Amino acid sequence: MKNVLTILLVTILFSCSNNEKIKEGIGQVETQSIDENKIKVLNMATFHMGFTNDANSVEYDERNLKNKKEIHSIAKLLSAFKPTVIILESSPEYNEKLQKEYKEYKNNPKMEFKNPSEGELLGYELGRISNVNRIYGIDHKMGYNYRLIDSLAKSKNEKIYLDFMDYYGPISETKYENGNTLEKLKMENKPEYLDYLIAYNADIMTHISTKNKFEGADVAAKYYQRNLRMYSNLNKISLTQNDRVFILMGSSHIAFFRDFMRRSPKYNMVDVFEYLK
């Protein structure tokens, strides 16, 4: 009787173990299937190469022939991704104008722009050599007060904020200024720098407030809101599993998109350093 019970117990345990393995196997197959069906995205951060209203800007001569040559070389590297759609930091309301101008550039790559930005310099050129037909802007402007600290009463946490703001983050200012265009873009896309930008643009503001109020947190919330609305604009664009999406935007926006897409059931981010070599 004892032997029978032992055999029965072993059989039950073996059966349960197999069932768990089967469930695991099914889960793995489903996950792999979902991953294979995700839309490939190359999510690339850039500094603003032309005029910008942003609080932070980089000294860069967008009309310098050497710089333009470097940018076109980078476009050639990125073309290995084989994009089918290009996304830029431009408002959707200008999409018709954007697409018209891009088409003109494809027909005449020597055309001059009044105020060229990274969109025209890099985005258009990548699209042209990759024969991309679809290009969209997804930006969403919102007002928020980065000078909030100047108008607030002294806060016991103000020193934490100021110390952080004085810290330049994982990028060496001298190395950045002396770097060529490719080296600058590599630094802009460092994961630790992108994490720093989320804290710099939003999270650190939570240290600024007056009694019983949340001024800093509210400013941070607006920056999150802006990026979520930009992400919503992306999600309004009709895409299929066959599309390969190249996104080119300012580094802080890419930092947020990197977080959003990391958890997304729809998108599969490709490592930008596979192409920035």
UniProtKB/TrEMBL annotation:
Organism: Maribacter ulvicola
Protein name (Swiss-Prot/TrEMBL): Uncharacterized protein
Any Pfam family: DUF5694
